[in-house]
Structure formats: structure tokens, C-alpha cells
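Weekly modeling sync, notes
Attendees: S.R. (lead), two postdocs, one rotation student

Agenda item 3: backlog of single-chain predictions. S.R. asked that every request posted to the team notebook include the full sequence so nobody has to chase files. The rotation student volunteered to paste the first one in as an example of the format we agreed on. Action items at the bottom.

Example entry:
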Amino acid sequence: MKYIIQFEDKEKEALMGGKARAIAQLQSAGFLIPNGFVVSAAAFEDSVNTQQKFDETSLQQYKAIQTGLVTVKPREAVQLELLEALAELCPNGELLAVRSSASDEDGMQHSFAGQFDSFLHVKPADVVDKIAAVWRSGFNIRVLNYRQELGLSPIPHPPAVLIQRMVNAEVSGVAFAADPVTGRRSIAVVSAVTGLASSLVSGESDADTYRVAREGSIIERQIIGEKPILKDNQILAVAELARQVSKYFQVPQDIEWAIESGQLYLLQSRPITALAQMPDPDGIFSLWDNSNIAESYSGVTTPLTFSFARRAYEEVYRQFCYFMGVPTDRINQHNDTFSRMIGLIQGRVYYNLLSWYRVLALLPGFKVNRRFMEQMLGLKESLPESIVSDLHAATWQNRLQDSWRLLMTVVGLIKNYFLLPLRRQKFYQRLAKALPPQFNIEALRTDELAAYYRHVERQLITRWDAPLINDFFAMIFYGVLRRMTEQWCKDKSLTLQNDLIGGEGGIISTEPAQRMLEMAGLISENLLFVKLLMDESLEVILSAMERVPQFKLQYREYLEKFGDRCLEELKLESPTLHDDPLPLLRAVGQLAQVQTTEKQNTLPKIENPLRKAAELKARRGLRSNPIRKLLFNWVLKNTRHRVRDRENLRFERTRVFGRARRVFVELGKRFYAMNLLEDSRDIFYLEVEEILGYIEGTATCTDLKGLVGVRKAEFAKYREMPAPCDRFETRGIVYQGLQLKNNLSPSPITDSYLQGIGCSPGLVKGCVRVISDPKQVIGEDKGEPLKPGTILVAERTDPGWILLFPAAAGLLVERGSLLSHAAIVARELGIPAIVSIPGVTQWLKDGDWVELDGSTGRVCKINVIANC
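Predicted structure, as returned to the notebook:
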């Protein structure tokens, strides 16, 4: 037959339309389906074209059918085939169901539910008229509106028509293999009414609703009448039918069903279209937070950087547990935890907080260490106690084991404390061996570059013992010192510990600022050269530098030591000062311009009197207890040394990342030369193992251009999107149905002041400059320099911001912690500073005047200072 398609006709399934095609497939798979056949869309096309000719793709025909200008009725040839098929299907005049089956109906993306007309209890003699009515419904105004809302083509395709024997249902309804409201995949939802389900589908009638768990228990019943419509065995049978159909299609299904004479029939099946973008609330809970990591990885981060960082975090914290005495078998049991310390969400790096807490739960003294870790990470809020209690069980066996492990860890801590100087010495030896200063990367073959990277990884990235142990002791000693100052020295403001550890000296991160001031002092009288630094291109400046040899020498020495320091220096894609030294030269020029009037070429030493006053206050608080004084001084000494070494070892991290960057930049050039990439910097859109795997023969995809193309398009979208919130949660599949709602409690903001964490003491008044990117001041284009006395305001900072610090009178940072880079460097440079000030970049604007107190952490607007 030309126009009639039987369910078993596999070759014509594509012509059946979405609804009928699914029914035909299910019948062939053994599901009980009412018998029937399909009138193809070709019947419509031939019928309409014989009566009046129209361009099938034009809106003219669409409107003509919609308004009734074109008569729609099956032509004679169609009717002859139809009579033959009906005689076979209902020889005794059985009633029929006549329904639409459009090509895009009941699909994965769109259901078109209720958009077309359907007819039940149709006599065979009325089928022709009902077919015509179904065809016309395919062109009604609601279909047009529906298509427009979904962004589909405005030209509808004529629907095929599904004709089946009518089921005389005692009970019928719909069922979902997953809960379409909550998204729970483990729950099937069954709705039932007496008689036909058409009133339920149309919304005219209420129904009994049952929820069935995947193990077969009925967990919820909503009964509208005096007694349930379905028996328990019928509920379970319908739920199982929905799940079996879903298993067949491999997608959770929404089915219509009916029971006639005790027999369960499947009437229709389609995907639950909204489910794909819904997270499963029963899925594994994850909590994501970027409180402190945004200092290292702000904004969109490339695949190469993330893959490099994820590997580093995994190995470093695995080593951490090993050094803390956690048994190897327990460490191995948590391989998944270590591999998920950080995640990449819409191109941005986040802490996976539950992984951090799980690692901490491996250690004894969870409750105490937890507070220190939260302080170190700069978290604005802790985990809910209900989640924390699940992470760290508190049975007597756990407590007993914890006590024993605590004893072993104390022994390990004492051992690591005394071994730390030796570990640091050996770390620096490995560093010198892996990162020789005179090393010609360009001279290595491509396979040698890969081998060299593996060597650096073995020697340093997976053996990060000294920095790791030092960081842990810095965290512990700083936390203990804070408690001592609060309890023993009666420091109610909680600022004494910051005053005590500032001005220690020997912190390498302050050296760039001092060198910049020295370079500025060299040229402050050379007004012409200062103007060149402020205004001209790099080529012009470098040429003129030949006539200022002493400056040139100091400039080269700076680049040799600090050339890897740059904005966002831990992101491998970030250009360093080696790549673009212009920000350094601009910053020096601006400092020289200021020094011309200020006559100052050394850093201010604000911290010494504050430190001496803090030491005097501590001595007074401890003078009556010599044992406490002795212990306090030991903790203070260790806190100062560990914080100093923490910052110095961070600089070595910069060097390691800088060397890795140079390796991958060179590999990008090689891959470009081999026509593997469209651009050498496309290397940053590949992951570490994809790059090395291509060289070593372990790659699973060698179409590097194709991989890069897909990722560049995706990451370009991320850059256009607003930044996700600071903290959010996910369930199950992390990237499914992301709803990035901020889970942090709103911070109170007043008109007069904001409260942050004071991290560098000092009281200063000044005009603020809100800077989102230091390139606004020291970029390629001439920027407005920081005027003397300006208070710098930023959302976050990283080591690259050091170029601005010498010119700043004060520092206000929205993110950060007491042990962040900005806090440590500000203390050493004597710049009053406050970190972790929620909303400060929105609260202040350029030109506002404020007073900040780096001890108390309060910043006030000058015009309302009386209310502070």
C-alpha cells in the first residue's frame, strides 16, 4: 500500500511520525499494544495537492489550511486503501482511536503534548472525517505558537495519523519512569483515573497518584476518592511497565496505559523531555566554593592549566596524608577523594569542599583541624553540621581509633617539625637540579621536552614535601598564636597576632617592590626617560634603555629573578614578564614620576613601632606566668618563620609553574610547526596527558585541531557568561542541570562601613581607586597612575599585583584570608590592609574617601565617619 503503513513494516518507520514509530517499535519488542496502522503524511500531501496547488514550504498554504480556504480531506485513492485496512482491523465495526503522529511529536527535545487533535470511540464510517480533522489540527494557531516558543521552523509538517483499536478501559492513566517534578530517577510516578485517561491528560480530572521506589515499594499514595482506584499489584505492574519501556528506549519515558478486563495495555510512550536538564536530588552531594582559590585561578581557566593543577592538588594532598601518618591503605581507599580536590565549573576553578573535609577527616583531631583549614582556605561559611557529622562518625570505636591515630600523628608532627629544615634543604636541592638557570629549552627535541616535563613532575610536583609540611605548620602555629593572644593576652579585637608577625623580613615577595623603587630612584631625575616609560611602546623603551646602563642592569636582574611573576601567574596561559615586560616598565615609570615630587625611593617602615607595641602588650599579658611566656615566645617564633617560609616557598612554586609554562609554550610552537594546531597558543586548550600522550603514543584522539576547536568554542561562551557564584551545590552528575545559586548567606552591608578581616595594621585615610585589572594602570595603553595616598580596592589579588603595591597607601580586598599572598606582603611592606570584605568593590567607587583600620578590619566612608 502507498498510504497505509502497518506497524511491522520496518522499512517505512521513518514515515510513521514520532508517536506511531515508538508504538510500532514497542509492539515488535513484545509489549502489549492495541492493534492498528498508520496513514502516512504522503496521504495528506497528495490529497491537498489534487484540490489546489500550493508551494508546500510557504506560509501561504499554511494560512490557507488554517483559515479553511483549502479543503482538507483524504482523496479517493487514500480512502480505498483506508477501507481495506479498516476491514482487516475492525471486521465487526469495533470502535477506534484516531490520533496524530507528527514527525517531531513525542521526540527527545519536544513532546508537542496536547497540540494536535485526537479522537476516541470513532466508528469506522467516521474515520475519514477524523483523519481530515487531525490534519487540520496540525496547522492550528496553537501549533504555530508552540513552534515559535521552542524556536522551531514556523512551517509545520503535516502529521501522519495513527489508527488503533479502541481499548475499553476500566482504569487508565499515565506513568513516569522518573519523577518529572523533583527529578528523582529512582521514583516512578503512576497516576490513574476510572475509565479513559483523556480527561486526566487534558487536565479536566484529578487522579490517584502513587510513587514507587525502584526496589518495588509504594512509598506515597495520594487518593482522591474514598478508596484507591488501583490495587497494589496493578500499581507495581504499571510502574514496572514504565521502567521496562524506558529500558528499551534507554531514556526515562512518560507512558499512557489502560487496563481492560484485567489486561494492561501500553497506549503511548515518549521521553520525559524536561528531565535531561534536571539534577537528581538523590545523587551524590557536592559543595563547590572558590573563596581562596580565586586568588590563584581567577576567571576562566584553560584545560591545560586545570589538568596541570588538578594533578598537582591530587599528588600534593596524597603526600600530605602520608606525612601526617595516615596508613597507606586508607590513603588508597580515598583515591577518588584526592582526584576531586578541585573542579572546573563553566571554565572556573572551584574547591570541592567535601573532598577537602574528607581528607581532613582522615586525620585525627578533626574538629580542631577543621577550623584551622577553614581559616586557611578563607571560607566564608563552614559546612552544615549535618554534613560534617556524616563525614566524621563519632562512635566509641571511631573515638578510640582517633585517639590512637592522634598519638601517632603527634609523634609524626614532632618528627616532621625537626626534619623540616632538612626537608627544605633537600627540596631546594631538587629544585636547583630540576630547574637549572642556564637551560636551553629550545634546543631539546619534542620527545626530550616531554621527558623533561616528566622529570620535573617526578622531582617536584609529586614531591612537594617541604612546602606542604611548612604550610601545615604555618596554619597550626598561626591558629594557636591567635588563641593565645585572645586568651592569655586578653586581645578582644583579635588583631594582636597580625601585629606580632608583621615586619619579620626575609620574605622574597617584598623584594620586587624594593627593586622597583630602586629602579625608579635611579631615573627619577631623568624626566625624558620616565616619560618614555609612561607613554611609549616596548620597542622604543628598550632602545632608549641602552643609554641608561645602570637601569638596564637592574631591569635585567629583575627579569632574571622575577620574570615568571605575572598576573594570574599560576595559570599557564598567562603571559609572564618575560613575554611582556611592559607592565613592569610602566609601574617603574609611575613610581619614578611620584618620586620626583615625593623624594622617596625606599619602602615605608610602618610596621616596626606596631610590632614593638604588640610585643610590649604581649609581655605585659604574660609577665605573671613565665611558663606561658616561654611557650608563647616559642609559638610566636615558629609562626613568624613558617609564615615567612610559606611565602618564600610559594615563590618557588611560581618558578616551577613558570618552567612548566615554558615547556608547554615550546610544545605549542612545535605542534604548530607540525600543522597539528592552528596557532601555537592553542596548546592551552589541550590537557597535559593529551599533549604528552600524542608524543608518547598513548593518546586516544590525534585530531588535536578538532579537540581545540570544540573547546575554544565552549570556553568562549564561558567568557561571555557572568561569573558563577562563590558557593553552590550539585547533586549527582555535576554538569547536569547546573543551577548556580549562591549558597552563602548574604553579608550585611551598611551605608557607613564594612567589616572585613584586618591583616596588616595601620590607620589610613585616602581616596580609593577600584581596580579590576592592574593593566588599567600599567597596561600596554597608558593608564592613570595611582596618585600618592590612594587606597587600592580590588576583588582579589595575586602575586602579579605587587607591581601596584609600592604606590598604594592602603589595600582593601574583597576576597582572601589572613595567610593569603596579599595579607602577608602587605604586612611586610607596611601597607595597612583588610581582606575578605564582602561587596567592597560594589560599595565603593573611584573617588570615594574612606578610613581603613588594618587592625580591626573596619573601613568607613569619610562622610559618615562619625557613625563608625
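Discussion: group reviewed the output briefly. The first helix runs from residue 18 to 28.
Action items: rotation student to repeat for the remaining queue; S.R. to check formatting next week.
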